[in-house]
Design brief:
The protein is about 25% helix and about 30% strand. The protein is built from 4 helices and 11 strands; from the N terminus they run βαβαβαββββββββα. Strand 1 (about 5-10), helix 1 (about 20-30) and strand 2 (about 40-45) form a beta-alpha-beta unit.
Length: about 200
């Protein structure tokens, strides 16, 4: 790749919708440092936990809807969405919903849940956590805790990786707070409808 490539990523949100408005503010701060080249924002998975409301009610879609509103390019939905839930959500979001059967190509980068032999792109980015490393044309990313943002930058063939932890006093973004309120209201309506049926 000629231009620098930056991957900003999150992981292990596990349905914590209250985290997302503050996380968005923090992502924007971190992203501001990387104006040059291509910048992608992705999630490595575990975005929802069925034990956390409203993840169970929405079959894993609640957090992903907010991530889409936050401008994510792709999210690993392995173990989060079953095929019918993925089929319903794919029509509602512009973010790529990546799993083993559904890789996503953007420019000359393929985002995938597992390494493939396909030579369709000059770089494969594996959205399943491992160790941050560049092996030939394959980039793997390190696992994170909720509230952390990983930054991986490829520039002149070199890999730079850092993990940033969101400061405790980070202010919530009002637009994303509104998106969270909307998702919760929709989940309550959906839950009531399921009970009534």
């Amino acid at each position: 790749m000629e231009k620098p490539l930056t991957i900003l990523y999150t992981h292990n949100i596990r349905g914590d919708l209250d985290l997302l408005p503050r996380l968005y503010t923090f992502i924007r701060q971190v992203r501001g440092e990387f104006a040059a080249g291509h910048v992608y924002l992705v999630d490595l998975g575990a975005s929802c936990d069925p034990a956390v409301w409203p993840c169970g009610v929405t079959q894993g879609r609640s957090t992903l809807i907010v991530l889409d509103g936050m401008g994510y390019h792709a999210a690993n939905v392995t173990g989060v969405l079953n095929p019918p839930s993925r089929a319903r959500l794919v029509e509602q979001v512009s973010m790529a919903l990546v799993d083993a059967a559904h890789p996503h190509t953007a420019q000359d980068v393929i985002f995938t849940a597992q390494k493939s032999a396909s030579g369709e792109a000059s770089l494969q980015v594996i959205l399943t956590p491992a160790t941050a490393a560049l092996d030939s044309d394959t980039l793997t990313l390190a696992a994170l805790d909720a509230g952390q943002v990983g930054v991986t930058r490829l520039e002149a063939g070199k890999l730079h990786h850092a993990i940033h932890t969101m400061p405790a006093g980070t202010r919530p973004d009002p637009t994303i707070s509104g998106a969270v309120d909307f998702v919760r209201a929709e989940a309550r309506y959906f839950e009531k409808k399921q009970r009534d049926d």
